[in-house]
Write a structure and sequence with these properties.
The complex is a heterodimer of chains A (480) and B (262). Chain A is 76% helix and 0% strand. Chain A has 480 residues and is mainly α. Chain A has a domain at 12-166. The longest helix of chain A is centred in the last third of the chain and has 53 residues, at 418-470. Chain B is flat and about 70 Å long. The chains are: A mainly alpha (480), B alpha+beta (262). The interface between A and B is large, with 85 and 73 residues.
Chain lengths: 480, 262
């Protein structure tokens, strides 16, 4: 506690925003591009179930490569870097400080995008590691890890040099997220992509641990941290019941991190049993977090109308549904039913696209015009993005969930031939492809807004540079 | 949670505990898994895949086959069956007794009781154990998959979605290399409504040389006249891997006894 810090006035918000202009445009611009790429890959992969020979002659475009490349491009290409940008902005604002070491996140954004590029190309040419959600080859993983650490350092320095001492619930979630990712990502990669991988099913257990800690715990920590900052800010009222928030935070971390080993996995029975118990114990965490969010959002004066508040709202609802649908697969009976079906895919996409991506998009739309000092070029398209994304997520995830349960019921009945169980899911897959199309349209609107904004900002920058260079020298600097 | 340090310690403790439980402990417990033996036998299990098949595992990985195929047979429970193997001194009464008893789909206790009553009447019996469940009824395996099945695989690819059938025992269910290759080249030539993509890029279409390796394709899928379809090394390795998938030996932790074929 440095007394001098308390006396120095907090930086004004425009100064903070200006310090983040370049880092955020670098992070958001790359992310918007990867979102389009990931969703397009996902649609191409989905089409293959209706026309299996579509693009079949090209090994790069075979389903088994496209599908993981699509998932990873959305998760590693968009969700994580875009969230990191929003997190940097939140921590700077809460600290009352311009971002520390602003060049670091710019460098990190470029390393990160290079890593995603290497990883995506790696999967497409057949260099995937073969572990779900950890498919990127080692070279890409090293780049992603280094880039994340750089951004975490910048975030930690911003927090360390803060001028406002108060610690908010958003802080808890975001700090934990910054610690969580480097640990799980390095640990999983050190075990699984090293020269001597552990024998047999240990690999799968570590991968399940990693997948759960990334897709459930990390997404919850980062997404809820962001929502717990923006809901009060946009709503103009403080976060409700921070006691519930603390309970949710601690139980999510302590129990949520033990979920993830599927029931009936071919491993010693204690592993899935512990996961099932942890899943049940995590349900109160989800409920507590949602109560805090709803109490804060309901009765707030903000109006929705397709703006950032809508994104947060929809994200909160999807967080609740996606998390509960995930945790109830820890019930042995239900878990067995849906284990190998499209249900898991639908649930993952509901959490990833419906909750996390929506919350991050809300954050981006809220801060984009602040940081560039420019108005959003097409504000109506930003609002249209919300409706497209909402409809897209519902049409994408819900049919997969229903179709998955139907497929599961048929798979459990040996009298039904396997082909029939598969056919039952195809109709639902067709609807979900429509959802993917809407999501692509929405992501194009975001990309358009960000790129036009970047170009406008660069033109303005160029003009001011040009003006500075061509301006007549002040008389005082002219040598006699 | 008044200070950054407090949050840090809580997060560190939470993640550290789960890391110790789900990374360290399995690495110590499962990482020491050793080769075991087939039940009531001295045969080692599992055996290393032959070289070609071990290379095929990497083709399976590179093409993401595990995106649609699992290699995990699930089992709901067990069921016992009592088989009369000898009728003893009084065949008529023993077989009458056997006809009146329920001898299949029994629990352990019921099977023991039935065996005892037949033995008391002078008959000889064998009791057989088999797994039950939808996967086993579909013929995908005789028992549930266990950790040791995956001992030699890196990466292990248990899969999480059954957009295609389970492959745990595909090497036993379709033990013909030409079938495997034709199915990879033109899935719909074998399964009419299959949604599996064709892996034609693992094959070469070339002017016919009458090679013994050329695929025997059904009409409608055959190569243009004067040419033939031959597998590349990657296709042969993948087929060899698929033929090596046969994780069905009875083990101590997953026992079953083969019933004599009627």
């Amino acid at each position: 506690m440095n007394p001098i810090d308390n006396k120095s006035p907090a930086a004004c918000s425009s100064e903070i925003d200006a310090s983040l202009r370049v880092p955020l445009l670098a992070l958001f611009g790359g992310a918007a591009l990867w979102l389009v790429v990931g969703l397009v890959f996902g649609l191409l992969a989905g089409i293959k179930f209706h026309a299996p020979d579509f693009l079949g002659a090209c090994p790069l475009m075979t389903y088994g490569r496209l599908a993981p490349a699509a998932n990873d491009a959305v998760l590693y290409g968009f969700a994580i870097p875009a969230a990191l940008g929003v997190i940097l902005w939140i921590l700077s604002r809460l600290s009352g400080m311009p971002v520390a070491l602003p060049i670091v996140p710019v460098v990190a954004a470029n390393i990160w995008n290079l890593g995603v590029l290497v990883g995506t190309v790696g999967i497409l040419i057949g260099e995937s590691t073969g572990y779900p959600w950890l498919e990127y080859p080692r070279a890409a993983a090293v780049l992603l890890f280094a880039a994340f650490l750089l951004i975490a350092v910048s975030a930690a320095a911003t927090f360390g040099w803060r001028r406002q001492r108060e610690l908010f619930p958003a802080h808890w979630f975001l700090f934990a997220a910054l610690l969580w990712f480097p640990w799980i990502y390095s640990s999983a990669n050190l075990f699984l992509t090293a020269v001597h991988v552990p024998r047999g099913m240990v690999q799968a257990v570590i991968d399940w641990w990693f997948g759960n800690n990334l897709l459930f715990v990390w997404l919850s920590l980062a997404g809820i941290g962001i929502a717990f900052y923006f809901l009060p800010k946009i709503g103009g009222r403080p976060l409700a019941s921070s006691g519930y928030a603390l309970f949710g935070f601690l139980t999510l971390m302590f129990f949520g991190s033990w979920v993830g080993i599927p029931v009936g996995a071919p491993v010693p029975a204690w592993l899935p049993t512990v996961s099932s118990v942890a899943a049940m114990l995590s349900i109160p965490a989800v409920i507590a977090i949602v109560i805090v969010g709803l109490r804060t959002a309901c009765g707030a004066k903000a109006v929705c109308r397709g703006g950032p508040f809508c994104f947060m709202w929809f994200g909160l609802v999807s967080f609740f549904l996606g998390s509960i649908l995930y945790l109830i697969t820890g019930c042995p009976h239900f878990g067995h039913l849906v284990q190998f079906t499209w249900y898991g895919v639908g649930q993952t996409q509901l959490t990833l696209l419906g909750f996390f991506v929506m919350v991050v998009l809300g954050g981006i739309y809220e801060i984009l015009s602040n940081t560039t000092g420019l108005e959003l070029p097409f504000p109506k398209l930003g609002k249209a993005h919300f409706y497209l994304a909402m409809l897209g997520v519902l049409l994408y995830a819900v049919p997969l969930l229903i179709g998955g349960v139907e497929q599961g019921i048929r798979l459990q009945n040996p009298a039904v031939p396997f082909a029939d169980a598969n056919t039952a899911a195809l109709l639902w897959l067709r609807i979900s492809s429509t959802g993917q199309l809407l999501l692509i349209l929405g992501s194009l609107l975001l990309a358009l807004n960000i790129f036009v904004m970047t170009i406008k900002w660069k033109i303005a920058l160029g003009k001011s540079l040009f003006a500075a260079v061509t301006a007549p020298l002040p008389v005082t600097e002219v040598k006699a | 949670m008044k200070t950054g340090i407090g949050v840090f310690i809580a997060a560190f403790a939470a993640l550290g505990a789960s890391w110790a439980g789900f990374v360290l402990a399995p690495a110590l417990q499962l990482g020491g898994t050793k080769v075991t033996t087939v039940l009531n036998s001295t045969d080692a299990y599992p055996v290393q895949r032959p070289g070609e098949a071990a290379l095929g595992l990497q083709v399976y990985r590179a093409n993401g086959c595990a995106a649609c195929h699992t290699q995990q047979v699930q089992q709901d429970g067990t069921s016992f069956e009592v088989v009369l193997t000898g009728a003893g001194k009084d065949p008529v009464s023993v077989s009458n007794l056997a006809a009146g008893l329920k001898l299949t789909g029994l629990t352990k206790e019921a099977a023991d009781a039935a065996a005892k009553s037949l033995a008391d009447a002078g008959g000889k019996t064998e009791t057989h154990l088999s797994g039950t469940g939808a996967d086993i009824s579909r013929g995908w395996g005789s028992r549930h998959s266990v950790a040791v099945d995956f001992l030699y695989d890196a990466p292990v690819q248990p899969g999480s979605l059954r957009a295609g059938p389970d492959l745990t025992n595909i090497g036993a269910r379709a033990a013909d290399a030409n079938w495997q290759l034709v199915h990879l080249y033109a899935p719909r030539a074998i399964v009419k409504d299959s949604t599996m993509p064709s892996f034609a890029y693992l094959f070469e279409v070339r002017p016919a040389t009458g090679s013994a390796e050329a695929l025997k394709l059904p009409a409608g899928f055959a190569a243009p006249a004067g040419s033939e379809v031959v597998p590349t090394p990657a296709a042969k390795q993948l087929a060899a891997y698929l033929l090596s998938l046969h994780a069905d030996a009875p083990l101590y932790e997953a026992p079953y006894s083969q019933l004599a074929k009627p």
